[in-house]
Amino acid sequence: MLVTCLSVGRIVCYNVAKMRLGWWPLMQLTPMMQQYKEIKQQYPDALLFFHLGDFYELFFEDAVVAARILEIALTGRDAGEAGRVPMCGVPCHAADGYIARLIEKGYRVAICEQVEDPKQARGLVRREVTRVITPGTVVDGQYLEAKRNNYLAAVVPADEGYGLCLVDVSTGEMAVAETSGQRALEALRDELARALPAEVLVPDNAPETLAEAIRRERPVLITRIEAKTLSEDTARQAVRAQFGAEVAAAPWWQRRQAVLAAGAALQYLARTQKRELAHIRTVSYLPAGRFLLIDAATRRNLEITRSLQDGGKWGTLLWVLDHTVTPMGGRCLTQWLEMPLASPAEIGARHEAVQALVDSTLARAQLRKKIGGIQDLERLAARIAYGTATARDMVALKVSLRAVPPVREILSGLKADLLVDVYGRLDPLEDIADLLERALVDDPPISVREGGLIREGYHPEVDRLRAVGSNGREWLCAFEAQERERTGIRSLKVGYNRVFGYYIEVTKPNLHLVPPDYKRRQTLANAERFTTDALKQYEDTILAAEERLAAVEYELFLELRQQVVERLERLQRTARAVAELDAIQSLAEAAARYGYVRPTVTAGRRIAITNGRHPVVERVLGPGTFVPNDTLLDEEQRLIILTGPNMAGKSTYMRQVALLVLMAQAGSFVPAAEAEIGVVDRIFARVGASDNLAGGQSTFMVEMKECRTIIENATPLSLIILDEVGRGTSTYDGMSLARAIVEYLHTRTGARTLFSTHYHELTELVALPGAVNYTITVKEEGDTVIFLHRVVPGSADKSYGLHVARLAGLPAEVIDRAREVLSSLEVRARGGETVRAPRPVIQLEMFGHELHPVLEELRRLDLTTVTPLEALNRLYAWQQRLAGEAVRVSPSRRRKKCGE
Length: 900
Fold this sequence. Notes:
There is one protein chain. This protein is an alpha/beta fold. It has six domains: 2-133, MutS, DNA mismatch repair protein, domain I (3-Layer(aba) Sandwich), CATH 3.40.1170; 144-288, MutS, connector domain (Nucleotidyltransferase, domain 5, 2-Layer Sandwich), CATH 3.30.420; 339-429 and 572-583, Orthogonal Bundle (MutS, DNA mismatch repair protein, Chain A, domain 3), CATH 1.10.1420; 460-561, MutS, DNA mismatch repair protein, Chain A, domain 3 (Orthogonal Bundle), CATH 1.10.1420.10; 600-611 and 627-803, Rossmann fold (3-Layer(aba) Sandwich), CATH 3.40.50; 841-900. The protein contains 29 helices and 29 strands. A seven-stranded mixed sheet has the order 15-25-26-27-23-28-29, with helices on both faces. Strand 12, helix 5 (208-215) and strand 13 form a beta-alpha-beta unit. The longest helix has 33 residues, at 533-565. It starts with a strand and ends with a helix.
């Protein structure tokens, strides 16, 4: 295959087969291309950014790929016997944006830097790969979603289960977990569905089925790592090297699966990042039982943090509750909603903190204002530890630290235990803030190597070198005036450019006045440029001073950055405290704005909600429009069988109960008049219809697999919502399965369950102990049905599907025929006869063969609900309509219509 590109006015064709590594050994390459080849062979799966001058260049097939994705010019370069090979490049100062685009497409990028000064190099400049950037190791917050973590996951099969490690390199967070038993793979997928990692590491000897299972929920980059490096000894060595010997006291140290996964992640980071990861200092252990568990299907169905439609935030629970004012607060709140607590004591501590801020409107408003001035300290700390932080990052750190003391002052008046704890962890790092204030200018340049960073008066050498430059400007002015006087050339001027340095410019009409000691340097169209020995000597002095000044400022900046690294633990502790405080105030702000109440969370099984409201639907509809409902689930009422019309709100009501329980256990107040929540260990939500075409699974198969997950994992402390089980197959199959599933869950697990159905025969399940029937009420007026959205005891005997179809805009002919078929089927069900759906019998009348609207209204009138006055009014109205029609139709017209 040939690749054609335009290169400096000519068309060049490249043979793609000759761009591959296997072809290189057959040819003699230039020294630089030989260096490129040797480095590229070490990183065959990454695009190699090769530092040349002011650009990162890519060659061979890397260039073809990058040019296409980045939409930049594909040019060429001479490579020796290989001839002209493809090349493209990006400026070093703008490389981050280009790298981010490649990472977003799932590519890895190896950064190959010049590791020695080209001016001092003898021969070829030495180059090395200083970092490999992958989707899971991006650090620059500019290219990450601000309020979501960017996780790298390591999955290691071991001991009939899996070890899992999650690392966010951009914040320094790390957590380990393990799954085992028959549900190990499913539990692993649930955790990955929660974390949504950008990259997953798996051993190269793991079966492909593991990668397929990981990708089943969503596409993700799978990176294979060498299994031979994943021994328990090497894993423990890597963990000790990162966290020190005291890690052996951690509760997860004896968990072999967790240790293997942590070691795999740390070894991969060491190979790709090639630097000390000083900001990864602690590991969280995620033991079973501490958090409310939510499987992948339930997480998707409840739309907790991501919309089912487009994966965005709008229309989710997070969209309602997120009033955070910092990125780290947003990430903390997301974690709380995705991992609700299971301990009444921990939940109560969060509720107490939220209550304190709800009660103090002034303190809450002040906190929102002050916290809003704090930058993303977690990701700032990571960049500082990485050595990629700029002077502007350091100024942002200083400004953020200056905002901490006012926050502490506000918190000092609040007595909630969690807020007192946050107050104790808020360290203003005044020593660092003062140091940065003294050392750095308020608005430093982007680059840290070109000077202009250090404030005047901070360092004597910087002040001296700057004085040389300042005095030099005075010297130049004096020199220019002196030369004008000496030569008589009034238009003479002294200037500077980066190519020729300092020069004396003389216009061509004055060239005859140029003295003999002037040495020609450059010829222009209308002038000549010269230099003198005195000017050249000054140039050497001033340029040396500028170069030395930039070098000294850079060295001082590195020292500043190192001093912050030495206090990194304090900085990260403050960052986490600010994140938690922001999440607490966000929940308090939502409670105050929307009228939420503090729930009572107990260790019992009773869930009692008075006038509960769906938090998302309420916000979409607007205040005052949502109809609230009560809920009671306890020992005597464990199963609610919910029937009612389509569109009446059964699914909304059941999701509402699940979301209110989740909110309460996450630490939030809830939209209700009153709520008592007995702690739930798991929430299961089998809602809606979806298929998995890529996995070869029909809608019904997906439904049954979700039911299997519930059956296998539900406990007496679980909350289950089942919406329309059995819809995906024939009526009797579906009804039978639905009944059997509900009976099994009720009798075998004892879980608290809400079950909605259109199979009205299933209301017989009320015979089970602890089962009750509820329905959603409607009001019928003639051919119109009004949904009242009230959940009341009792059962429904029809679903009003035809009414919903009419609301959807189906043609009247379709609705009428459906009504005929429905009547026939109902007759058949009552009598057991096989009856063909008949056409309606229509009474002939003088105005045509169609049933008159008045007769149709009369047929539909429910006499049991009509008062005598309403009946008289309707009779009068019908009489007037008939009289009017009789007047409008002439005798001849009537004879023509009646024909018979």
